[in-house]
Amino acid sequence: NCLRIAKENHIQYIAFPAISCGVF
Q: Locate the Macro domain: which residues (predicted)?
C-alpha cells in the first residue's frame, strides 16, 4: 500500500519508506 501511494504521488519511496508508511 505504501509503495502504491508513493508511486502514484511520484515520491522517492526508496529514500522515504518509513515516512510514507508512517503518514499513510
A: 1-24
